[in-house]
Amino acid sequence: MQQQTLNTSQMGLQHLATNRRTLNRLFKFVLVDFGFLDHIPFPIMRNALKKNILRAVYLTDGINVYGYAIYQEIPKYGGIHVLYLAIAPEFRSYGLGSVMLRRLDALSPAGILLEVEDPDFSRNEEELSIRTRRIAFYERNGLTLDQTVKLTNFKHPLLLMTTTALPALNERQFRKFYRQLYNRVYRIPVGQIAVNARIEKA
């Protein structure tokens, strides 16, 4: 079957309303795309979205929804921290992940920070391949993998990727910075307990 052509120039980011119906639809998407993250705290996220701590956007042409992202602004750093980003399964071979990142980059010229799953903790070859391809995708789109920072979020091993270098911080300072990101979302003491960071010497 021949692939249809999509007019990406007509696609933009639409911020979501925070009513129950809209958020329930969003969380259904998240559960499908990130079901392997069994810790996803939807009630906490719902509260953070309603308080505008978190923000959610659809990639849309005004008719179809092609993908979504959930992010927060980063205090002091000035960029955005993307917690979740996904393209709808039926549109994943159209290069729309790159379109989404370009739109987010335009939304935040100060930079993007996000986490990816650590390939070193893959349970099988398929998982290793998926995680490696995901990192390569972000690198093609201007993000840099920080090999020295090791993160855990509810015990899930993660790595850090950014479009703009973070200020030089020692391990204690970076752990505080990283936990504060999630403290804003999860609220203390959940973020303090569930989130950790360490820096390995290069």
UniProtKB/TrEMBL annotation:
Lineage of producing organism: Bacteria, Bacillati, Bacillota, Bacilli, Bacillales
PROSITE patterns: GNAT
Domain N-acetyltransferase: start-end pairs: 11-166
Name listed for the protein in its UniProt record: N-acetyltransferase domain-containing protein
InterPro entries reported for this sequence: Acyl_CoA_acyltransferase, GNAT_dom
SUPFAM superfamilies, alphabetized: Acyl-CoA N-acyltransferases (Nat) (SSF55729)
